[in-house]
Amino acid sequence: MVYRFAEGEPIDLEYAENIVTITSNTFYKLPYEDGSRKYTYVVTALDRLQNESKKVKEKVRL
Hints:
The radius of gyration is 12 Å and the shape is globular. It contains no helices and 4 strands. It is mainly β.
């Protein structure tokens, strides 16, 4: 699962509106809107029983 949070927004995975995508791919192409807004992306994994892993936060530069 990939979550997106606006700059300054608290990272809380309990709210579904922050989910960008749920994918079985090992990659996700981040949308590039205009480069003026900063977002934090958080990635989690789902196991075969749909249990979600701990979050991982990684800095990415577009």
